[in-house]
Amino acid sequence: MIDLVPLLAGTLAAATPLIFAGMGELVVERTGVINLGVEGMMLIGAIAGFAFCATTGLGPAAGLLAGAVAGMLSALIFAVLALSLAANQAACGLALTIFGVGLSAFVGQHYVSTSLAGLSAMNLLGLQDIPVIGPILFHQNYVVYLSIITFLLIWWILAKTKLGLLLKAVGESPESAHAMGYPVLLIRYGAVLFGGAMAGVGGAFLSTVYTPLWVENMVAGRGWIAIALVVFAAWKPARLMIGAYLFGGVTILQFQAQALGIDIPVEFLAALPYVATIIVLVFISRDRKLLQMNLPASLGKSFIP
Fold first, then answer.
1. What's the CA gap between 239 and 230, in Å, rounded?
2. Model pTM above 0.85
3. SS3 letters for 205-248?
4. What are phi and psi of 296, to 5 degrees?
5. Which CATH architecture describes the domain 4-115+132-294?
6. Which of 233, 224, 171 is nearest to 202 (CA)?
7. Helix-strand-coil percent breakdown of the chain, rounded to 5?
8. N-term to C-term CA, the chain
9. Which helix (H) or strand (E) element contains residue 70?
10. What letter would DSSP give residue 83?
11. Four-point Cα dihedral 20, 21, 26, 31, nearest 10
12. What is the pLDDT of residue 128?
């Protein structure tokens, strides 16, 4: 039988890159911009973080910072094309993903045989020894807790602050926000750069902490899942958090099923997380009223002052 304690403990770590990338994309889409380049930004952040740690000998924290910077720089390319030049946002995002796949593969070929030390789990508040709950909640690396803090901050900003209202206003009616004197393009630039930084952190987490080695295309579709989770969550942070943990749980479940030797084809188990995501999205998309109520009105539409 599958042991639930390591399953649930592994779920928190497996969901961490999705939380970072998904929360970043949620903020971007709240301002009316859709960036389909999350997969590419995560790959660029992954190779940047890994290469920086492997070259300098610094720890994962430096790799996460390098990944954030690389993600922001790649998002800046998208912002210039989609915001300043008013190019098609979907096309720019797809181009960014293709660029990220190629660039990470080219740079990463020098680091294929390299591995890092990784990051050990913490004994948070000395509560690791509490039965069941302790190993799940209080025996994780600090990046897992950082993802939870990130979720809380984004939820609070969107729900409780003037900045959150401004982001929503720009996403609903950029013309009205511009008429009131708010710098719509500057706000969208900030959101896109923030989304790039979060995607870069998610990618760097994969390469420097979760599996501290470089494998070509190691993001393996998580960027697309992060975009799908934003729709699944109806642009609400709490729902996105739940969706990320559901996907993380299914991912860990397939590994445990393989380890137990369950007589199911390996290919099916590998596809299980993505199949589960598609099924959930199908059911969510049937509730058109929920999506229409929360969908930013200007999502995907260019704005020229």
1. 9
2. yes
3. HHHHHHCCECCCCCCCCHHHHHHHHHHHCCCCHHHHHHHHHHHH
4. -60, 130
5. Orthogonal Bundle (1.10)
6. 224
7. 75, 0, 25
8. 60
9. helix 60-79
10. I
11. 110
12. 85
CB-facing half-sphere around the CA of 97: CA atoms within 13 A: 17
In contact, 106 and 217? CB cutoff 8 Å: no
Phi, psi angles (nearest 5°) of residue 115 = -130, 155
For residues 88-114, average pLDDT = 94
Cα(27)–Cα(156) distance, integer angstroms: 12
Model pLDDT, residue 151: 96
Bridge partners of 115? Answer: 213
Average pLDDT over residues 70-96: 96
Q: What is the DSSP letter of 85?
A: S
Question: Is pLDDT above 60 for 199?
Answer: yes
Rounded-to-integer distance, Cα 144 and Cα 146, Å:
5
> Is the pLDDT reported for residue 129 higher than 70?
yes
How many CB atoms sit inside 10 A of residue 119's CB? 21
pLDDT tens, residue by residue, 210-236: 989 999 999 988 999 999 999 888 899
Q: Which helix (H) or strand (E) holds 240?
A: helix 237-259
How many CA atoms within 13 Å lie on the side-chain side of 271? 8
pLDDT tens-place string over residues 103-112: 999 999 999 8
What is d(CA 158, CA 234) in angstroms, rounded to the nearest whole number?
Answer: 14
Q: How many CB atoms lie within 10 A of CB 277?
A: 20
Tokens of 147: 């993802």
Paired residues of 149 in beta bridges: none
**Cα 99 to Cα 91: distance, rounded to the nearest angstrom:** 12
Cα separation of 62 and 50, whole Å? 10
| 149: Cα within 13 Å, side-chain hemisphere | 5
Which two structure tokens, joined as six digits, stand for 7? 């399953």
Q: Report which DSSP code applies to 111.
A: S
